[in-house]
Request: fold
Amino acid sequence: MKKPSNTRPGHPEGHAHEHAHDHACGPSCAHQPARSSGIYLISPSSAVRDPQTVELARERLAAEGFKTVVDRAALATHQRFAGTDKQRLAGLARAAAQKQPIVMATRGGYGLSRLLPHIDWKAMADSGKRFVGMSDFTAFNLALLAQTGAISYTGATAVRDFGGKRTDELTRALFGEIMRGELEILSFETSDADAVDARGVLWGGNLATLVSLLGTPYFPKVRGGILFIEDVSEHPYRIERMLAQLAQAGVLQKQKAIVLGTFTEYKLAEHDQGYDLPEVIKWLRREVKVPVITGLPYGHGNLKATLPIGQKVGIATERGLAHLVIDEHHH
Reply:
């Protein structure tokens, strides 16, 4: 795989670079005949706490060129959920049937896992929609891949990335570029990457949600893939325990690369005595002989790329940089 020779800085802090081409064929070209800019907003997981955040997200999405339609149950509330199970399932069914090409989750939280056996996965795949969400939405992304092989997206959500007081400019730009099929290469800085030059199916998402699907019909059986993971509020020992489960189940050894996004908002204890995430990564390398790459701009922080789950991509590293080739048509 040829490494890009001319990437342009995409963020003032230099954490990520984007290499885009106005006429690139995007990651869903195989099943999307045309690109348009309508987004249908749904809430398949936790309830939206403040409806004003959805309105602000709609304004910001409009500024990025996306018109939005809000599902009639997107602001519903039942216990901690965005409506009853029946309401949220109906919202997904409406999303697959309506005309907007992009279906975006307002937020994550919890709630999709209990819906998985009741979703019509063939209808979701046959709809041709570009489903996008993050965190709890990992359950939908991976189940769709496992059940149908269809591509979906993980990254930006409406409330978190477009509806807050402050939003990240590059996060918004990367979402727009991948939805429009313009993003060819995502290059990012890495201070800890093994040498790799490989191709495979890109898959992953939130680590805890991914592991919760292991042993179910909603866990994709990906061999020779590029697995990416992130998590929030999970102590490094919990991260290691989940990685150990994936390793002992034989999942990690079948991948061509393991790419680590951000692991944020955890607190160390005094008795950890130096045990932190870098120690987990050292353990991972000892335990699983698969290249590990850190620094992917993806997770529960402000900066995040929107990525295609189920798309065949390329990955390569060089000194201090990693390149995720989203559009292999040109590379």
Notes: The radius of gyration is 19 Å. Residues 57 and 63 are 10 Å apart (CA to CA). The longest helix spans residues 51-63. DSSP finds nine helices and 15 strands in the chain.
